[in-house]
Specification:
Aminopeptidase; about 30% strand; 8-stranded mixed β-sheet; 2 helices; about 15% helix; alpha+beta
Length: about 150
């Protein structure tokens, strides 16, 4: 199923409570949590609490979703880049791709240039879901979505 990958489940304690979470280590990159309802979908928690994302893995490709660096004060400091570099290390032989909103296209273009991802698959203008983003939603002052736009 997963050739060239070393997977090892490790139990760790979180938040000094009794909650045991199972994490998977892939090619030396730890803290991938298996999605509870979707096979071969991982929540990458290795850079939490600063950043995290979702990774969808198929035979020879990986799609990255829901990338977030939580605090605006932590953005632009290399946290997202480090996380995406971790994913490249975990999946070195996969084609890694994303779809992106216009406001984050510059970041993803840098990730392509640096070899951390292979492609941005949407060449069309696609606004982000953050209705307060003035790059993708310059005229939406109310923060409300148009009916049927998503």
């Amino acid at each position: 199923m997963m050739k060239n990958k070393e997977k090892k489940k490790i139990k760790t304690k979180q938040n000094e409570g009794n909650f045991d979470a199972q994490f998977v280590c892939i090619n030396g990159v730890s803290r991938f949590r298996e999605h509870p309802h979707r096979e071969r979908v991982w929540n990458y928690m290795g850079r939490a609490p600063i950043s995290m994302c979702m990774v969808i893995e198929l035979e020879d490709w990986v799609e990255i979703h829901n990338v977030i660096v939580h605090k605006p004060s932590q953005r632009g400091r290399g946290n997202g880049t480090a996380m995406i570099a971790d994913i490249r290390q975990a999946f070195p032989d996969h084609h890694i791709w994303v779809n992106t909103g216009e406001c984050s296209r510059g970041f993803w273009e840098k990730m392509v240039e640096r070899g951390f991802i292979d492609s941005i698959e949407n060449e069309y203008w696609w606004p982000c879901r953050d209705t307060t983003c003035t790059i993708c939603h310059p005229t939406r002052t109310t923060g409300k979505r148009r009916c049927g736009s998503w």
